[in-house]
Design goal:
Blueprint lengths: L1 E8 L5 E9 L2 H37 L4 H32 L8 E4 H18 L3 E5 L6 E4 L1 H17 L6 E9 L2 E8 L32 H12 L3 E7 L3 E9 L5 H8 L3
Helix pairs in contact: 1-2, 2-5, 3-4, 4-5
This protein binds adenosine-5'-diphosphate.
Adenosine-5'-diphosphate binds next to helix 4 and helix 5.
Length: 271
């Protein structure tokens, strides 16, 4: 709270009383703190690759390196510039969706169609790592009222993480089922898992599990975007379960669409 006290005087300069205005600034302060924290994490994330590039440029300017060393430095710089580009693209994507600049286009869709499209995008990445990619989609018609591009993007993010954080030769599974009045999507892998103390932070912007990211490229923004798309855009929910060295499972729940519930009943109870 913020209290501002003002003395009130009459025309003879004698004090009439004191007016105290009490304002609840808790929310405003929270918002400011969150904003300041966000700006400082963005700055930090941008600084790391930039100081890398600067160091490489300085080495090249010094002129002490031979042709082969120079080629190597150009390669490092290229990687850092890719990282900057990924960061900026992810931030723009998240900001556009959160601020409503991107129009949300929710229409009636069949969930399994969206999942099949996402699976087709990821299948080559899985094949490249010899990962067995299994899709087990519900036989039921799962009507949802969603923005198919956004929900598809969320599923792709989760599948691509599953492939990225799972060693070669392991398994990734995409499942769908109906539960009560909702459709449930499960993305499960048999990969490196997420330590218990990291699980509460996993959807935070820029959070990356320190143990998992020695080599994998990323921004720590993917899951923040998934969370926003599922909860804010589609009134759904998302949860995660994980065991280190055993694997991770993300579960998304999306409310089923209205008018087609009739169709579901027809399919579910044909007799
Ligand atoms: P990133 O760009 O780093 O992949 P994300 O926001 O998508 O960012 O994920 C945040 C962090 O969560 C990752 O850096 C990784 O440490 C961890 N993570 C995400 N998905 C998985 C998974 N399927 N298995 C293990 N760790 C994961």
């Amino acid at each position: 709270y913020r209290a501002v006290a003002t003395n009130l005087w009459d025309e003879n300069q004698s004090i009439l009383g004191t007016m105290i205005v009490v304002e609840n600034i808790g929310e405003e302060q929270n918002e400011k703190t969150r904003h300041a924290e966000f700006v400082s994490s963005v700055a930090h994330e941008l600084k790391t690759p930039m100081s890398g590039i600067k160091a490489y440029v300085e080495m090249l300017l010094d002129g002490d390196c031979d042709e082969q060393e120079a080629q190597e430095l150009y390669g490092f710089m290229n990687d850092q510039i890719d990282r900057l580009t990924r960061l900026v693209n992810s931030m723009l994507n998240l900001a556009r969706i959160e601020s409503g600049v991107i129009e949300i286009k929710r229409h009636d869709h069949e969930l399994n169609d969206i999942l099949k499209t996402a699976a087709d995008v990821i299948a080559p990445n899985a094949a490249e790592k010899d990962i067995t990619f299994i899709t087990e989609l519900s036989d039921l018609y799962l009507p949802v009222h969603v923005d198919n591009d956004m929900l598809g993007q969320a599923i792709i993010n989760l599948l691509s993480n599953a492939v990225k954080y799972t060693p070669n030769g392991h398994e990734v599974r995409l499942r769908s089922r109906m539960e009560d009045a909702s459709a449930v999507i499960e993305i499960r892998d048999t990969g490196m898992g997420i330590p218990e103390n990291s699980l509460p932070h996993i959807f935070d912007r820029f959070y990356r599990v320190p143990e998992n990211n020695s080599s994998a490229a990323g921004t720590g923004l993917g899951l923040a975007l998934v969370h926003f798309i599922v909860t804010n855009v589609h009134n759904g929910s998302i949860s995660v379960q994980s065991k280190v060295n055993e694997g991770t499972s993300f579960n998304i729940t999306i409310p089923l669409g209205h008018q087609e519930k009739k169709k579901v009943r027809q399919v579910a109870s044909p007799v």
